[in-house]
Amino acid sequence: MIKMLNSQRSLSELPKMSAASQVERAVLEEEFNWLLREEVHAVLKQLQDVLKEASRRFSIPSPGLESQLKQENFILGSSSMDQVKGVLTLQGEALTQADINLKVAKSSQTMHFQFREDKQWKLQQIQDARNHVNQALQLLSSHDESYHFKTGTEVNKLMDAVMLQLTRARNRLTTPASLTLPELATSGLMKMFSPPMPGDVMVNFYINLSKLCLMVYQLHVLPPNTTKNFKHAGSSVLHNPGAMFELNNNRFEVSHVHKVECVVPWLNDTLVFLTISLQLCQQLKDKISVFSSFWSYRPF
Amino acid sequence: MSGNSLVLPIVLWGRTAPTHCISTLLVMDDFSTIITGCHDGQICLWDMTSDLEICPRAMLFGHTASITCLSKASACSDKQYIVSASESGEMCLWDVNDGRCIEFTKLACTHTGIQFYQFTIGTQREGRLLSNGLYPEILVMDATSLEVLYSLVSKISPDWISSMSIIRSHRTQEDTVVAMSVTGILKVWIITAEVSRMQDLDPVFEEESKPVYCQGCQSISFCTFTQRSLLVICSKYWRVFDAADYSLLCSVPSDNDQSWTGGEFIAADKVIIWTEDGCSYVYKLPPSEHFRSHVGKTKESLVPPLIYKIAERSDKELLICPPVTRFFFGRREPFHKLLIQGDSAGQLSLWSITDSTPQQPLSVSSTISLQEAFDKLTPVSAGIIDQLSVLPSKEEPIKVTASVYIPSQGRLVCGREDGSIILVPATQTAIVQLLQGEHMLRRGWPPHRTLRGHRNKVTCVLYPYQISPRYDQRSLVSGGVDFSVIVWDIFTGEMKHIFCVHGGEITQLIVPPENCSTRVQHCVCSVASDHSVGLLSLRERKCIMLASRHLFPIHVVKWRPADDYLVVGCSDGSVYVWQMDTDALKQFSLFQGNLPKYSHNALVVQAMKTNLTDPDMHVLFFDVEAVIIQLLTEEAQRPNPTLVSPETLQKSQAGADKGGSFLANKIFKQVKETMKETIKEHLLDEDEEEEEEMRRREEKSKSLSLLEYNLTMDTAKLFMSCLHAWGLNEQLDNICLERLGMLRPHCPISFGLISRGGHMSLMLPTFKESLLRQLSLATGLKLTLSDIVGKGTYGVSRAVTTQHLLSVISLANTLMGMTNATFVGEHMKKAPARPPRPGGTPESPRRMQATPPQPSNPALQAQIKQGNYKRRGHSFHVGVTLAAMHCVMLPDLLGLDKFRPPLCLEVRFSQALLLAELRRIGVSGRKDTIDMWASYLPQYVDTVSSRKCFASVVLGSEITNGRNLCHNDLEDTNQLKEHNWLGQITLTVTSAGCNVACR
């Protein structure tokens, strides 16, 4: 409103402005009003639909009814070349069952691990992404058709807030947390298995884009008087063979790294929805900016 | 701008208040300060009087993203600390009194709520900050170091915590943390003594976890009056739970189109609830016993009645995002119960809630916005080139929308909203805005140049030569909202070329790095709002590459010169790689760019805006150390050195060596280096073609006569005039005005304070209003703004005062040693018709100064010398008396009791330290010190005692100068420590002593 008022005032104040540009101004003003009244709501509606669809993919547990969430099984590393094979059960945002087969290079025997009955591994990335999408939806729901947008800035502000949530949701899925090896070793993940994971094997689960990933590190202890140049590995998503770390006065080196992954179809959908929503938001902002640069024009 | 060297900011805010779209707010426990955080990352401090008048005082800079929460961070009232957190995970601990940043940290996660709590461990109480946010834990941090000590973790369905509340239960005598997760599960943690002592990061699991089916929880809070109920606000309903067993007592739904955002208990049986659009309602809860007897029965009969409504703001139509509402109540007299609302227009509204029930909606008690406070000011807050921007027909000056400062020429380039660009000497325009003097009577002063070419707002200006010497010294590049980029000749004012390649407003102009291909090296890179990037060759005068069709706005442009790649980062996180110049000669030159001549400049004018839509405000950064180095350099270059020649410097250096001071040494070295460079430059200049030289000189003199005035002296003049404590000693003021040529400020100046990690606090121009009120109240007199100019400078905060004092003394002492120890200007004299100044006789000293010393006239020379001495004496007085005034007399002069106790303590403390140090260096050390500085002593003082005092002042200030160097240079930490404190104390104590001697 304030911008429109300004523009009206400047209209009356400026007799020297040519008639043509006055007409042009009036037309633009009308178009801008249409944008605020109709177009913005149409876009918001579309946005809401897309995000609801995305949010539906994350099945939200209602308190007390977690067990009723549907379970999905994913098979990681199906080719015969893989030394690691895993069957993971994803229920909502947590891995409830895991079945890992590991072929160690030196011996031909296969090691087999399972999650303990009472344990499950929460994928914080999924929970964060879900919460961000819901926050974006909440922002949109308070501006439904009955809401009257007064200025372009108001729309921009709303879009900025929504886009912040959507970008964060997408970033959570695309960029897994990077951990240092000691962090990984002391995380609860190592204590979740039955039979217990041997001291020279470490595992990690994470989401990368739409893929559920399983990392297995095989370690060997460095002798205390080793001639090797000991250097602490920093934090990373994926540590390469040769990375070293110290834990409980023992020095370890990563000898083998195995990574297996499997696409989670609904995560892929979600990412597509997020990208579409972000583009919708930006397009709306661009439309507004066409007019706002016009309103800020003050002839001198 | 490092926080270690002594850099003083002075702000020219202009008439438009910065955008302050309030995102969160806080009231300090004593109800004297309101703190607001905004979406652009600034924090504003507002002073509040006991009768609820509010006045903005200062703005704190340092966060890079929207402020998400604010909390107090100290329990005692003598140190008022707050902690702020931003959307990007930054946390910062500030001192509310002077806006200093005490500690800062950055975590990968965003905090949305922080609460301060003192846990009781046995007899001890430890200040902790509890934070929740976009992560499933509650982090417990140390309130002074901001270190995470341990975290509170959920075992059962962990999820983000949307709100939490901490209470010390009377029943169990335990500190209890109650939190609501986003999925509506209530969690309870009990902090026992052993938990609090934990140092490692072992998680603490919850005591209780109860689903209470509250989706979309906004806030939870305990009834502090009875501790028997818990209020939970969700967007669609609010509920009251029993605080002991968390059973539901009542639930009230919202009207269809409103959503609740918060609420608090205002009495044992009353709650206030507010909505997203800023309406607030007060409900009465049934009496406690009756309430509880109904547990488990139908809830419809239990809807508490609405008692009254809080009147809404009438103009909230114009808001661009929901306002923030908070309730605070005072635990001490006068027991205020305040509902405070901050909105997107930077407006604060206050409602004082009474215990009685009003018939009408409660009307607002007090309201003010940042812009209103700015508008009320007389004189209005100055902008950097306001005098050149006020059009005769219009009230408001034309806004400056983009600016760049060229330190080597001392010129400021200001692009304005009407499309014109103004080139103006920065110090002179700042003098016009800040200080009174002859210039007030001139129109169009200072001499400036206007470049016209853009048809609308100028959005960015760039002076490429400043960044790399490979560019032409004359080229200035500007971009505007008219989609064009224009190249100007800065010396002739000629428009060289217009690039029209973009389809949107130009948003950024960037200089490519050194090792690009030769073709790209002569380009500037322009970024436009149509999401395109262009490479515009200044030499070929054409666009050599245009990268467009990015889907999102361009956030950042990076270079990979070795591969000839341009890397464009967009706001959604996508990255595009472009080949810059396909037929480029792949050149991998290892050309090292010339370092700028002065590693730092005495004065830097930095344009700042808190929001993209705001006009520029300008901050003048004075680097005291650099001013001194420049002054000494120029002094040493003078053809007829009289007092401080390189020889005397040499002498002092020798003395310094003897005294073991590496500081004088260092300054001297720097001076020598800069001298050498200048000489080299002169030689280079001579190498250039004569013709070119002639033409340039012609151009320069024709263009602006900008280079004829003495930039360094002007800077020092501006600086000293701003810092002097005017109005505290009339005699001294007159000397400053008449002999030293200093000018009196129009009104108290908005200073700033740079603290750790580049965090900065800038005083808003409105600070003087509350200061005026405070002083008028204290003295019982009706004061005007000009009465409090000095008090405005020195009565604000101790950290600021210390910096100012150090600067004034060190600068005064430097000036004292100079031949031309006065600022009585020469460029002003040249103007044809100078109006006579009313009152005062500034003529005689000026004449003395203006006439070059002629050996043939011994009488005149004696007079000059005397004048010099006098002047030197006066600058001594300025420095000494200023120091004395501050350290000893300031509390009396200001008539403010609150400054007295800490200052007296400081003086006493430093006296003791100095005595100890003097004892340590022994008789010979003391003698050496005085001998070393003997040559600098004014000879009209002959009593031994005061001579000693002056010697120590000189010593003190020299060390003060050095102090700053020390900070920068950590090669000798022992010396650092020694000089650091020695400098300060010598200064304080001797000035106190000198004051006595001078009297």
TrEMBL record, chain A:
Highest taxon above the source species = Eukaryota
User: Known InterPro entries for this protein?
Assistant: RAVE2/Rogdi (IPR028241)
Provide the Gene Ontology terms for cellular component: RAVE complex; synaptic vesicle
Provide the protein name: Protein rogdi homolog
Any idea where this protein resides?
Answer: Cytoplasmic vesicle, Secretory vesicle, Synaptic vesicle
> What family is this?
Belongs to the rogdi family.
UniProtKB/TrEMBL annotation, chain B:
Q: Which GO terms describe its cellular component?
A: cytoplasm
Give the span(s) annotated as Disordered.
828-860
Per-repeat ranges for WD:
60-104, 451-498, 547-588
Q: Which SMART domains match?
A: WD40
Question: Where are the annotated coiled coils located?
Answer: 672-704
Q: Which InterPro entries match?
A: Quinoprotein_ADH-like_sf, WD40/YVTN_repeat-like_dom_sf, WD40_repeat_CS, WD40_rpt, WDR72-like
Q: Does the keyword Membrane apply?
A: no
Keywords recorded for this protein, A-Z: Coiled coil, Phosphoprotein, Repeat, WD repeat
What Pfam families has UniProt attached to this entry?
WD40 (PF00400)
Could you tell me what this protein is called? WD repeat domain 7
This protein's species is Takifugu rubripes (Japanese pufferfish)
